[in-house]
TrEMBL record:
Biological process according to GO: iron-sulfur cluster assembly
Record domain NIF system FeS cluster assembly NifU N-terminal: where: 10-129
Pfam families attached to this UniProt entry: NifU_N (PF01592)
Annotated family: Belongs to the NifU family.
Record InterPro entries: NIF_FeS_clus_asmbl_NifU_N
One Gene Ontology term of the molecular function aspect: iron-sulfur cluster binding
Native source species: Latilactobacillus fuchuensis DSM 14340 = JCM 11249
PANTHER family, alphabetized: IRON-SULFUR CLUSTER ASSEMBLY ENZYME NIFU HOMOLOG (PTHR10093)
Protein name listed in UniProt: NIF system FeS cluster assembly NifU N-terminal domain-containing protein
Length: 163
């Protein structure tokens, strides 16, 4: 396949994920949630995660953002669904390495569709857009916070329910 056709295919996948995002919305039951903002371009992402049997059983995101941030969030949710938090953390690290150009010969297959975002590293201003969802996932998975504050994480599994 010619390089221009391959680039066009990658662009189409990114546009499809942005225009028809997977796992977009809210969950009924949430174990972890966070809202992160990219102050340089105004992207806002809310991420909700439910765990069951030590794995990410449900994940959803909402918010507003550019094509790259929305596509990356959609791809990330697809990639980590059904994974353990440790497996997700490995994927987060790989995605970060890919975005900064570390380990250029690495096989990025572990990232599934998100591997096509490797080209974003050529546009340094867009790297924060691509990594926003992945950073949110990392912060949510390592958090033990109990109250919802913008830019902060909530772990609902450990909060007491009040009626």
């Amino acid at each position: 396949m010619a390089l221009s056709k391959l680039d066009n295919l990658y662009r189409q996948v990114i546009l499809d994920h942005s225009q028809h995002p997977h796992h977009h919305g809210h969950l009924d039951t949430v174990d972890h949630e966070i809202e992160l903002r990219n102050p340089t371009c105004g992207d806002v992402l809310q991420l909700e995660i439910a765990l069951q049997d030590g794995k990410i059983s449900q994940i959803a995101f909402s918010g507003e953002g550019c094509t790259i941030s929305q596509a990356s969030a959609s791809m990330m949710t697809d990639a980590v669904l059904g994974k353990t938090p440790a497996q997700a953390e490995t994927m987060i690290e790989r995605f970060s390495d890919m975005m900064i150009g570390d380990r250029p010969d690495e096989d990025w297959e572990i990232l599934e569709d998100a591997a096509i975002l490797q080209g974003v590293q050529q546009f340094p201003a867009r790297i924060k857009c691509a990594t926003l969802a992945w950073k949110a996932l990392h912060k949510a998975l390592i958090s033990d916070q109990h109250s919802a504050v913008s830019g902060q994480i909530v772990n609902h599994a450990e909060t007491e329910e009040t009626d």
